[in-house]
Structure formats: structure tokens, C-alpha cells
């Protein structure tokens, strides 16, 4: 028995799975009923926070798969302390998020936002723009998405370093990796700071007033990780005070971003609605990852993308 937590739409391409198992599709309000007797749960609505409240009904559950790389919506104590295996959709969004990051870095360097505003006013104003070749970017988060970002930025001529659990040199994608625990001591060296770290108790609020004060006043901040990695009020104050030069934000601690947020109207801020990884066909790609793991699960084979529930992400050699 497979329970599938949906939002407004059912996941596509589920017919092959429906031929192999009884599938119960449910929205958040019906999740508890759908979980009773279910062996597996596919959290297709990956932003839903309904799983903890319905967990009491998970009387047979052995496997939970979430259709995202981040697992924080489902990683609550009941799941963490259980024997239920947790897998995620790592790998689907790596290249598309990397392209987004390169795009916003170019947008900052080439002053695209001001060009659009001037065009709207039919105003011809010549300016000079920045080069990104040779500029130094720090990617905070050294998992597959961070590595894809590093490779693309290097291909564009940028120098790239990383920040992760442990410091090291000679990394194939980052060269130097700084320890996240010592992050603030290194931030002043970078023109761009790109955040893609997973949300854990250790990383929540890691970019606060102290971190922004440690950055250069001409540096730009890019968040494609989780909104809760940032203390939003501290970011707003840093932008207003000129402690940093700008920010590109795809994720927020409250989503949708409230209409009265000052971030909407700041000239040096680019806002996008949690879409940096969402390429045409991404929903099908998410189902493909689940379908592969479903086949493995039915065959008794090792699952892909098994999350270490203590760490909050899929561990890797680095």
C-alpha cells in the first residue's frame, strides 16, 4: 500500500506504479486516514508540513520519500526516532539551480535590473558594468547542488571556494573548503556568497547580523538553500545600511513572501518565488526518481538517496 501526499495536482506518470501497488492519493487533511495500513509514503507536496500531525496513523510505514532535496518538512522527532527509511530527490535540481546562480551573478554584474527600469522609462543612460571573470565566490554547502554551482561558476572564469562541515584543501570542485563553524572569519574575502546548505539545527539562522557585518560592502548574497538559514530582519538591515551590496533570494522563512516585506521594493534585491530549480519537466523528473526507488524497494534492492536522519541530508564522501 502506497500513500501519496499531493497538493493541488496529482504527480504525473504514476500509471506504472499504479499497476504494481494500491495507491491512495490524499491532500493534507486526509493524510492520517491514507497512512493507516500504508507501507510507503511519497510526499509529492514537498512543502507540506502535514506529516508530523498525521504520524500517529503510520502503523505499517517502512519508507518515506520526499520529492525534494531538502527534508526539513518531514524530519521531525517521530520520524527521526523511528525505523522508517527516509529518501529524497537529490540530483534532480543540481544543474538548474547552478544555472540560476550564474544568471543572478551575471544580472548583478551587468546591472540588468537597472537596464530594465531605464528601458521602461525609455531612458538612454550609458554605464559600465563589472566582469565576473576572476571574481571570488564562496559556496556554502558542498553537496551535489553546491558542486554543480562551483563547476559552472569556474567555467565562467570565477574563482570558487566552499564552506562545509570540515576544512580541507585540494577539493576537485572547490579547491579550498572552509569549515562552516569558522565561516564568519572568511566572509570578507568573497565578492559573492552563495548559500545552498541544508537546513539543520546547526545551520538555522547562520546568516545573521554578525555574518553580514563580516561580508564586504560590495559583496552580493545569493540564497537558494532554505529561507530559515537567514535571519531576515538582519539581512534587511544589512542591505539598508550598505553592509552588503545586494541580494538574490529564491527562498524565504515565510512563503509566499508577505506583500509588506521591504525586500520587494529594494533596488538591490532580486526576489523569485522558490523556483530556482524548477525547469520545464521537473515534476516528471521527480516522479522518475521516486519510480526508480519504488522499483528498488519492491525488489528488495538498496534505495538511492538514503538520508542520514541525524545529519538531515544524504551523506557523501566529503
Automatic annotation (TrEMBL):
<feature type="domain" description="D-isomer specific 2-hydroxyacid dehydrogenase catalytic">
    <location>
        <begin position="10"/>
        <end position="307"/>
    </location>
</feature>
<dbReference type="InterPro" id="IPR006140">
    <property type="entry name" value="D-isomer_DH_NAD-bd"/>
</dbReference>
<protein>
    <submittedName>
        <fullName>Phosphoglycerate dehydrogenase-like enzyme</fullName>
    </submittedName>
</protein>
<comment type="similarity">
    <text>Belongs to the D-isomer specific 2-hydroxyacid dehydrogenase family.</text>
</comment>
<dbReference type="Pfam" id="PF00389">
    <property type="entry name" value="2-Hacid_dh"/>
</dbReference>
<dbReference type="GO" id="GO:0016616">
    <property type="term" value="F:oxidoreductase activity, acting on the CH-OH group of donors, NAD or NADP as acceptor"/>
</dbReference>
<dbReference type="InterPro" id="IPR036291">
    <property type="entry name" value="NAD(P)-bd_dom_sf"/>
</dbReference>
<dbReference type="InterPro" id="IPR029753">
    <property type="entry name" value="D-isomer_DH_CS"/>
</dbReference>
<dbReference type="Pfam" id="PF02826">
    <property type="entry name" value="2-Hacid_dh_C"/>
</dbReference>
<keyword id="KW-0520">NAD</keyword>
<keyword id="KW-0560">Oxidoreductase</keyword>
<feature type="domain" description="D-isomer specific 2-hydroxyacid dehydrogenase NAD-binding">
    <location>
        <begin position="103"/>
        <end position="276"/>
    </location>
</feature>
<dbReference type="GO" id="GO:0051287">
    <property type="term" value="F:NAD binding"/>
</dbReference>
<dbReference type="InterPro" id="IPR006139">
    <property type="entry name" value="D-isomer_2_OHA_DH_cat_dom"/>
</dbReference>
Amino acid at each position: 500500500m502506497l500513500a501519496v501526499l499531493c497538493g493541488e495536482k496529482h504527480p504525473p506518470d504514476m500509471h506504472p506504479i499504479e499497476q504494481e501497488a494500491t495507491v491512495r492519493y490524499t491532500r493534507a487533511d486526509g493524510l492520517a486516514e491514507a497512512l493507516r495500513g500504508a507501507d510507503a509514503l511519497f510526499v509529492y507536496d514537498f512543502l507540506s508540513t502535514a506529516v508530523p500531525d498525521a504520524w500517529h496513523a503510520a502503523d505499517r510505514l517502512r519508507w518515506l520519500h520526499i520529492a525534494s532535496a531538502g527534508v526539513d518538512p518531514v524530519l521531525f522527532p517521530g520520524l527521526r526516532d523511528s525505523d522508517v527509511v527516509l529518501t529524497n530527490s537529490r540530483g534532480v535540481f543540481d544543474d538548474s539551480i547552478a544555472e540560476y546562480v550564474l544568471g543572478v551573478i551575471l544580472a548583478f554584474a551587468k546591472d540588468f535590473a537597472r537596464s530594465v527600469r531605464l528601458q521602461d522609462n525609455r531612458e538612454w543612460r550609458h554605464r559600465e558594468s563589472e566582469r565576473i571573470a576572476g571574481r571570488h565566490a564562496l559556496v556554502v554547502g558542498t553537496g551535489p547542488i553546491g558542486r554543480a554551482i562551483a563547476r559552472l561558476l569556474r567555467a565562467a572564469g570565477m574563482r570558487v571556494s566552499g564552506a562545509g562541515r570540515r576544512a580541507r584543501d585540494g577539493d576537485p570542485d572547490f579547491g579550498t573548503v572552509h569549515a562552516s563553524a569558522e565561516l564568519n572569519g572568511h566572509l570578507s574575502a568573497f565578492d559573492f556568497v552563495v548559500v545552498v546548505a541544508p537546513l539543520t539545527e546547526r545551520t538555522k539562522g547562520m546568516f545573521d547580523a554578525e555574518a553580514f557585518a563580516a561580508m564586504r560592502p560590495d559583496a552580493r548574497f545569493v540564497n537558494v538553500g532554505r529561507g530559515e538559514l537567514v535571519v531576515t530582519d538582519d539581512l534587511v538591515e544589512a542591505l539598508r545600511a550598505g553592509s552588503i551590496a545586494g541580494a538574490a533570494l529564491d527562498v524565504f522563512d515565510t512563503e509566499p513572501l508577505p506583500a509588506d516585506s521591504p525586500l520587494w521594493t529594494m533596488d538591490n534585491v532580486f526576489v523569485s518565488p522558490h523556483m530556482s530549480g524548477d525547469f520545464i519537466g521537473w515534476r516528471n523528473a521527480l516522479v522518475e526518481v521516486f519510480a526508480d526507488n519504488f522499483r528498488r524497494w519492491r525488489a528488495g534492492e538498496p534505495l538511492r538517496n538514503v538520508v542520514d536522519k541525524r545529519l538531515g541530508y544524504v551523506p557523501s564522501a566529503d
